[in-house]
Amino acid sequence: MGGFLTFISSIRWQDIVDVLINSYILLRVYILFQGTNAFRVLVGITSLWLAQELAASLGLILTSWAIRGITAAAAIIIIVVFRNEIRSVLQVRNIKAFLWGFPSRVQHTPVDIIADSVFQMANKRIGALLVFPGNQDLGEVIHGGIPWNGQVSNEMLMSIFWHNGPVHDGAAIVKGEQIVEVGAILPLTRRHDLPSQYGTRHRAAVGLAEEADALVVVVSEERGKVSVAKDRNLVRVADSRALSQLIKKHLKMPEISPASQRKREMLKLVGAGFVSFLIISGIWLAFTRGQDTIIALNVPIEYVHRPASYDILDTSVDEARLQLFGSSALMRSLSPEQVAVRVDLSKATKGRNIFAITQDDVILPPGIALNRIKPSTIEVTLDTPTTRKIPVQVDWTGRLPENVGLVDVSVTPASVDVTGGSATLAKVETVYTCPVRLDKLPPSGTTSAEIVLSPPSLKLSASSTGLVTIHYRLVKSPIPRNR
Q1: How many CB atoms lie within 10 A of CB 215?
Q2: Are 106 and 132 in contact (CB under 8 A)?
Q3: Can you give the pLDDT at residue 174?
Q4: Are the CB atoms for 396 and 483 separated by under 8 Å?
Q5: CB proximity list for 2: less than 8 A, separation 6 or greater
Q6: CB distance 89 to 137 below 8 Å
Q7: How far apart are CA 123 and CA 239, in angstroms?
């Protein structure tokens, strides 16, 4: 019980948001692709991935490697083979329909009217081809169709397929309660096992059934018979009732009341959401809690919220060594820029301060935890900043040439304003320039040099440029040299 409570207390609000967002994404994939062949293959790929993870956890190296290769190949195949289904799902009119809308309900096709009309055309020897699309997009399979968008009725079907009509040789595409296209050209099958009495209409019906999940109803003009093509099969239909049942089965038309259907759909959606949440939660646990890895990292210490009246004179350390742990996947993606140690100086006082580095001072990315930190305490010395005018002295180095002396040396400005801690400035009597070589002095009698401050906590005031001009005179011996 204690371990469970510890686990619950370790979950951050970022983890909850992360799981909910990805659960919703998975649910959207289910809503958009349910019922398609691509979705069924995607479920198979997911099962392969779970099997691969199980094999890896059991140490089955060869099996894990083989399943990983099959999964990668299957992921490519689903994109290539089912590109039409994927495209039809992704081709939405607005972002709302894609992100949180629901697919429009399937409109109930007046199946009985269609079935009666088909057998009326069969009795009158009127040839016909009716296509009822499934989940696949027929855009790349059917060609030459003329947009129609007419309401399904007995008279409409008779007029489309009447003898010598301009579109009677093509197929009519039926969606919902409308005939959306007429005169469509279907692909012909290459099979040689069809009976010889079957003509072009039958070969076209079988050809479309081979390449898509549509159902095709064909009426023979010569024999007055009705056949149905689906899934590479061509079967003869005896009467309108049998034809009506086949069409309803293909369209998955519900046999229950609309209220019961809505309730069933809602329960199905809730169940899908719950399963999505469980799957994403399992993946989250695998990534963030499984396969713990420990690494050590040196991180510079940042000092924040320093009182404006104090300056930092000295610190005991400049960086901390952190021992971090988390999942191997998160550790591999960790970069030093994501980790920081920040010490709050808001309560610091003048002089020497000792601070303990705690978990609150360490900034870590989600999923990474702090195991140990060295040192656990640091010393920070603060002082009140003040400004003093301090004389400048030249730092001579090297030797003058033989028989040459240096006289009348002066520095402009002779002193500069230096800002720093009061205790530090009290110990500084002189500031020096950077080394000036005696053997490199120009004969003009003037040179310049930068001021070097020590310790580094000291700074020149804003009015000083940090550059001084040195005036001197070089004379011939026997005047003694100034060193």
Answers
A1: 23
A2: no
A3: 93
A4: yes
A5: none
A6: no
A7: 11
pTM above 0.70, yes or no: no
Q: What is the pLDDT of residues 292-301, one digit of tens each?
A: 678 888 999 9
Half-sphere exposure at residue 103, Cβ-oriented, CA atoms within 13 angstroms: 19
Which residues make Cβ contacts (< 8 Å) with residue 253, sequence separation at least 6? 106, 108, 109, 111
Strand (E) or helix (H) holding 320: strand 319-327
Q: What is the CB neighbour count within 10 angstroms for residue 193?
A: 5
Model confidence pLDDT, tens digit, residues 128-146: 999 999 888 888 889 888 9
Q: Domains along the chain?
A: 12-102+259-287 (no CATH), 111-251 (3.40.1700.10), 292-383 (2.170.120.30), 386-476 (2.170.120.40)
**Is 71 in contact with 45 (CB distance < 8 Å)?**
yes
Q: Which residue has the tokens 């301009």?
A: 166
3-class SS of residue 353? strand
Type of residue numbered 141? V
pLDDT at 100 over 80: no
Q: Is the pLDDT of residue 7 over 80?
A: no
Tokens of 219: 């009426």
CB 299 within 8 A of CB 340: yes
pLDDT higher at 276 or 217: 217
For residues 63 and 75, what is the distance between their CA atoms, to the nearest angstrom?
18
The predicted structure's pLDDT at residue 106: 46
Contacts with 196 (C-beta within 8 Å, 6 or more apart), sequence order: none
Bridge pairing between strands 446-452 and 431-433 = antiparallel
Task: Tell me the C-alpha to C-alpha distance, in Å, between residue 275 and each of 28, 64, 173, 348.
Answer: 13, 25, 37, 53
CB 219 within 8 A of CB 127: yes
Q: What is the token pair recorded at 114?
A: 């269609």
Phi first, then psi: give them for residue 9, nearest 5 degrees.
-70, -20
The predicted structure's pLDDT at residue 456: 80
User: What is the distance between the alpha carbons of residues 259 and 253, in angstroms, rounded to a whole number?
Assistant: 14
184: pLDDT strictly greater than 90:
yes
C-alpha–C-alpha distance, residues 403 and 57, integer Å? 86
* 415 Cβ neighbours under 8 A, 6+ residues apart: 389, 390, 391, 392
CA torsion through residues 179, 183, 187, 188, sign: positive
Cβ atoms of residues 74 and 48 within 8 Å = yes
State the Cα–Cα distance between residues 227 and 265, nearest whole angstrom.
33
Nearest to 229 by CA among 193, 265, 201: 201
Q: Which two tokens stand for residue 205?
A: 């019906």
Inter-residue contact 227 to 199 (CB < 8 Å): no
- Tell me: the pLDDT tens digits for 370-400? 888 999 899 998 888 888 899 999 999 988 8
Task: Quote the crossing angle between the two packed helices 240-251 and 111-123, to the nearest 10°.
Answer: 140
